[in-house]
Amino acid sequence: xxxxxxxxxxxxxxxxxxxxxxxxxxxxxTIRFALCYPDIYEVGMSYYGYFLLYGLTNTLPDVWxxxxxxxxxxxxxxxxxxxxxxxxxxxxTPLHAMDLxxxxxxxxxxxxxxxxxxxxxxxxxxxxxxxxxxxxxxxxPSMLNATPFEKFFDLIVVGEAESKLIEILSLYRTxxxxxxxxxxxxxxxxxxxYSPLFRKGKVRRQVIEDLDGVYHxxxxxxxxxxxxxxxxxxxxxxxxxxxxxxxxxxYGYRPYRERSLERIRDIIDRGMEGTGYxxxxxxxxxxxDHSALFDVISYIKGKxxxxxxxxxxxxxxxxxxxxIGVIGDIARxxxxxxxxxxxxxxxxxxxxxxxxxxxxxxxxxxxxxxxRKLKLYLMIGFPWEKEEDISVIRxxxxxxxxEHIDINLAVSxxxxxxxxxxxxxxxxxxxxLNEKILMIKKTLKGRRVKVxxxxxxxxxxxxxVSRGDERLAPMFEFLLEKDxxxxxxxxxxxPELYTEWxxxxxxxxxxxxxxxxxxxxxxWDFIDTGVDKSFxxxxxxxxxxxxxxxxxxxxxxxxxMKCKTPLQSRGAAIAIQSSAAESKPEPFPSxxxxxxTSSAPGVKYTFRYGKFGDARYIGHLDTMNILLRALRSLGxxxxxxxxxxxxxxxxxxxxxxxxxxxxxxxxxxETTVGILIHEETVRDINxxxxxxxxxxxxxxxxxxxxxxxxxxxxxxxxxxxxxxxKLRYNNKKYLYVWKGKGIKELWSKGEFERIIKxxxxxxxxxxxxx
Length: 770
Ligand code: SF4
Hints:
By secondary structure, the protein is an alpha/beta fold. It contains 23 helices and 27 strands.
């Protein structure tokens, strides 16, 4: 059993007991691969790409891929203080004892976490200094310019890593036993892979052609601590054909590719059975573009009652009016639209081809279906921006106000990212960005708008790292020396250290933010994304002139990707349909439908369950979610209450403090009539629950009928002097009974190694279920 210090926050992050985690036999020829996410558990456990690689590599019988996340500050200090190396979650193997260690980097400010994780794992930071130990791989969206931090990796995979990782592992299998440097040299010969030790010419970004033909995770490990996005992710498409000129994802994931409706349905079915999640996220850079989006949503609505859908970002004009009722009915997190600029002229320059009037025309309908809140994304700091481009924000929000729709406005500074047509443009100064943010706040004061903005300083540092070159490598080592980590968390971000380093080295920070010459080579030019540089130049030229370029769905703009077939999207189809005079939309659904909220009484069942061992670190709400998901994955539908934001109809016994075990916890659920829970349910649910959570029995009826008197059994290896009743002494352990309050404090004092909540009748009868 794990013994995590009692002052560590959210200890379940480090327990590694998630349902669906993959355990294998580490002996023999098994290749040990640690897949690291350079941020904390809650962030990494939300990231689709991470589970894609975790599940995929584990399909190889002789490869065991295990997880590792950055520890929070308290655990970090504990590891350092006690000389404990950073370990994997599954087998608790130190990273330095693995064959390969991979980092997936999706955010530039997480580079410091990579260095900190290497340091905690006692692995030399620079590739050139490693003589033994695991091979360190890097991949992920931020690797399209890894120049500033490439020295910390032995190998870097550029682009979509699915096929490449399998190739790397297969080749590694044949090279095993050779000298480390020879293995790196051989692996670096693979297309799309390079080593900073053996730089080659151009490195081609890897692109998967057929999404239907590749692996998609259907049973990812389910977090035991509430993660940032607690839902089942289905990647419905990859890439984007809209051609927004500022967007790295739009250029870095070209071309647009869809998963078929048939394949999506299959993933949803397997995912719902394997996870029991209450929400499905349809992942895409622009989910409204998927040609079968409405069919996917209708499928979920028809088959998975009570399950909601999240659409990360919608392009204005991609949802038909007749679909709003159906989509709005199960998309409970609301609609998010990326407007990017309030000014029509600026939207032309950045190639954001949307018609705002379409959204404004849909407002009454959105309101009718219960959507009183919308989220809009805006960017500021484009080089051509004038005061009127900012002041027009107020004007475009007036119709929302008229319809009593609240707006959450997210404002971010524009960062000229590598590999986009805007890569040569300068970044707006910090002072001007702050002035513009202030202006927006003033303009919108007292309106029905909540403004959230991305801090200008953070954006400047992000820009420096993403546009950086190899001179920045020592900066990351300096930041590590200063104990700089977890910078994506506002309270841990220390921009003054970056300034200090630049001043110390005599390098002007502004150099990385200034305009770049089209004639000069850029640090990331050796990465071939597939898009021709001449296309990027011509797109920049069109932006200067305020000219738009058609999207990939309306016709190929010949960017260099050489797509074989014309791309289709529903966005284009809807635009064509709207402009055709004879087209008639389907009739609206008569009324918004709330899910599973019928007033018909359901059937109540109460489960008695226990929490033991490492599961004692899982919090009360997280335990409840784990149980509810396990029930859902068995096909047991729980009734909900609330019309637009339904909540499951459940009752629970009092919250059990973290660290305390129990064999008498109660969960009451109300199922729909017709759903029967039978004896096998106990066996089936225990099969899928994480180790340490166990259902003992259930009764048909309310929790009230099962509440019994309980006490706490306290286990210590020494005698404890107080009024507690000593029950027995065996196996060199003293067993006490406590019936008072203050059990949390008793646990925090640290006198007892285990505290177990138990029904009185079991104590007196000397019976325990554990
Ligand atoms: S080749 Fe044409 S269709 Fe393909 S991504 Fe480029 S512009 Fe779009």
